[in-house]
Inverse folding.
């Protein structure tokens, strides 16, 4: 199929005409002043791109090649075998040199990573491919401060425990960080958790992690930061494929395929995965009911893009995802079905306009059981079904004023509607009870970025207004209205950066952020093992105030960079799972607003490039996360659950034409599984390795091992002790096939 496609593209007859186009960076910003040279028939012609990145070289033969050079970017070369009359415009994307990585997450506009005052980590395509981890959430564990509700990963954990948090704020299942898939929220509309496998690994261009409150630009959900998953665009015809098979009967495949023809692009991203899993409960506590926690999922996204000229594009994307899980006993299962459509448009001129709209639906189903003390038997105690719908849109206008001043303005809206349907078995089935809820969130924001000499400053302000309403429904009885609730939030941010020298800068920020409770937290109870967690329809929004200050040292050639930040965050009305009662057979908790949490600490990141092939990165976090005030005095002074005081990672990567290899070591300190600090989880050190043998330019074989030393570490106490995954080994192949332009 690919050979036919390549042949079709190469069959167009050569023509004579202008070679014209636009030069952009990886974030889509125009590159001015780039030297463009066209070589053909032993001659060459050159020009320089204008302020909008455009260039034109008239009267050249179609066959030849284009070379582009620009300060701060890696050299670029592209063959031009045929330039048909309907495809005479080239869009050339330059990659930043090592010292000039770009982030979009920090300010919602592209800016060099070395110039942002925010604490941002960017995992590029090389880092993603040379990370031994199989899933995106496990890849992110190399960023200290990133945590899920529990230590277990998305391969085997219940999806309701896969909410992300940053900088020691912990969580109760819902994310305290906003996760974006090319600008569209990936957080579950009902529960706020993340289906990490919805985005195929092969489709990722990079991952950006913005640490610190970000509600000034992103609104609810960005309480502790933003994780932005950036996919590859269909800029040229290509196929990227990653397929592997490993321990626990685990086949996995992900693909990103793109077809480019003139102004049109077609893209298909797909993923498929299944695993037999492992038994979660520690061997000395297992019983007859304990079985392997297996999972399987599959999904795709099909997108069509039209770019009539280099400064504009429109697209539509359709996606679907399904997963099912066996959660460690025969009775406990869950499955999810998701569908979504996204439409968008981008237009660049004197200013840039970005528009997105999305809509989707979801059906979630789960069963829970009661397990006897010796784990010899279980019985069904709850069955839940949650249909949900979401629709939203956002628009943003960006305008540079001169070279050192940029203003941004935007708005977004999101509506969620869902019903939590539940049948309780005690032991016979009780009546069907449904809690139906609606949420509407509207936000407006503005940002001003200005640079004056060595000093640069960013000021942003956002206003959000949201509300919730609902009813309790049961067949044969009138619907009972649940309390309506409306709130608003004003989220300011001020960031300052001072460039002390060519290699050293100092930065500081102050901000406020918030997170509104999800419909899941308001209306849906759940049970995990012998822990029952009740909903609370009276929850209020979490609100955080934070300050941070740090330094960034970076060699001019980019081969060494070190960033360190001190932060102090206080979360008012934090939602926590508060223990109401505890017996050997049942622990009962309820989601409640705890008065005040404080997370203060120090994070440090370093990266060194030793030669052209070897890269070393190290990261470390110390955070003191405690309950400062609470309506329950017994909680005051205790540590926030699921937050280790220390986290660290070390990554060594080697990339050569004959061999690519990586070693990653991750450490997480001791933490507690519960709010009253009765169930400690010991520290854990995990070692992962990967080795790959390139087979020419387009393919490579690889082997990877996760938890190489087979460390058995705690991930939960409910109060039964559950363990993290054992050693896992897999072998695979990667293909990167592309048609010549």
């Amino acid at each position: 199929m690919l050979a036919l496609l390549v042949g079709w593209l190469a069959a167009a007859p050569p023509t004579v005409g202008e070679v014209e186009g636009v030069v952009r960076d990886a974030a889509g910003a125009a590159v001015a002043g780039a030297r463009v040279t066209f070589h053909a028939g032993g001659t060459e012609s050159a020009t320089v791109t204008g302020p909008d990145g455009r260039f034109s070289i008239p009267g050249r033969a179609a066959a030849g090649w284009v070379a582009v050079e620009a300060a701060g970017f890696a050299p670029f070369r592209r063959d031009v075998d045929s330039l048909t009359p309907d495809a005479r415009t080239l869009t050339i994307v330059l990659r930043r040199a090592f010292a000039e990585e770009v982030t979009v997450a920090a300010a919602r506009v592209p800016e060099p990573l070395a110039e942002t005052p925010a604490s941002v980590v960017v995992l590029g395509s090389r880092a993603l491919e040379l990370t031994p981890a199989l899933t995106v959430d496990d890849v992110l564990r190399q960023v200290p401060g990133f945590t899920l509700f529990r230590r277990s990963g998305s391969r085997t954990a219940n999806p309701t425990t896969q909410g992300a948090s940053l900088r020691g704020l912990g969580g109760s299942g819902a994310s305290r960080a906003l996760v974006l898939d090319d600008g569209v929220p990936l957080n579950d509309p009902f529960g706020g958790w993340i289906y990490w496998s919805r985005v195929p690994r092969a489709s990722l261009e990079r991952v950006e992690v913005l640490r610190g409150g970000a509600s000034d630009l992103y609104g609810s959900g960005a309480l502790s930061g933003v994780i932005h998953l950036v996919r590859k665009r269909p800029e040229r015809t290509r196929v990227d494929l990653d397929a592997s098979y490993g321990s626990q009967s685990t086949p996995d495949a992900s693909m990103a395929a793109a077809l480019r023809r003139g102004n049109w692009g077609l893209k298909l991203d797909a993923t498929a995965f299944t695993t037999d899993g492992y038994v979660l409960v520690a061997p000395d506590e297992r019983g007859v009911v304990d079985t392997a926690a297996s999972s399987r999922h599959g999904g795709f996204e099909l997108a069509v893009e039209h770019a009539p000229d280099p400064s504009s594009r429109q697209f539509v994307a359709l996606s679907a995802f399904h997963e099912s899980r066996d959660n460690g006993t025969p009775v406990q299962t869950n499955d999810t079905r998701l569908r979504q459509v996204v439409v968008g448009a981008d237009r660049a001129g004197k200013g840039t306009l970005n528009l997105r709209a999305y809509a989707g639906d979801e059906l979630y189903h789960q069963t829970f059981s009661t397990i006897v003390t010796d784990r010899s038997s279980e019985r069904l105690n709850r069955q839940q079904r949650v249909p949900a719908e979401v629709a939203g849109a956002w628009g943003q206008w960006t305008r540079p004023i001169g070279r050192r001043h940029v203003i941004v303005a935007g708005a977004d809206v999101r509506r969620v509607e869902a019903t939590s349907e539940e049948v309780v078995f005690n032991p016979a089935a009780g009546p069907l009870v449904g809690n139906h809820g609606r949420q509407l969130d509207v936000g407006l924001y503005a940002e001003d970025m200005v640079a004056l000499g060595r000093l640069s400053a960013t000021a942003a302000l956002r206003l959000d207004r949201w509300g919730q309403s609902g009813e309790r429904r049961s067949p044969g009885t009138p619907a009972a209205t649940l309390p309506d609730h409306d709130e608003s939030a004003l989220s300011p941010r001020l960031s300052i950066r001072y460039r002390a020298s060519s290699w050293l800068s100092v930065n500081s920020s102050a901000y406020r952020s918030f997170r509104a409770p999800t419909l899941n937290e308001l209306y849906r109870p759940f049970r995990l093992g012998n822990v029952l967690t009740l909903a609370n329809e009276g929850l209020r929004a979490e609100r955080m105030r934070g300050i941070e200050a740090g330094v960034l040292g970076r060699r001019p050639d980019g081969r060494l960079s070190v960033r360190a930040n001190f932060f102090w965050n206080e979360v008012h009305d934090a939602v926590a799972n508060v223990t109401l009662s505890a017996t050997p057979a049942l622990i009962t908790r309820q989601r409640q607003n705890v008065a005040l949490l404080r997370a203060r600490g120090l994070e440090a990141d370093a990266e060194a490039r030793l030669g052209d092939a070897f890269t070393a990165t190290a990261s470390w976090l110390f955070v003191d996360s405690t309950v400062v005030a609470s309506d329950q005095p017994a909680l005051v002074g205790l540590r926030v659950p699921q937050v280790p005081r220390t986290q660290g990672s070390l990554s060594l990567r080697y990339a050569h034409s004959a061999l690519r290899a990586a070693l990653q070591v991750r450490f997480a300190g001791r933490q507690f599984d519960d709010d009253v600090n009765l169930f400690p989880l010991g520290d854990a050190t995990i070692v992962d390795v990967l080795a790959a043998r390139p087979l020419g330019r387009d393919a490579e074989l690889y082997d990877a091992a996760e938890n190489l030393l087979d460390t058995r570490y705690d991930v939960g106490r409910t109060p039964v002790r559950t363990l993290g995954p054992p050693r896992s080994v897999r072998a695979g192949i990667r293909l990167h096939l592309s048609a010549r332009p």
Summary: The chain has a mean pLDDT of 88. The longest strand covers residues 587-610.
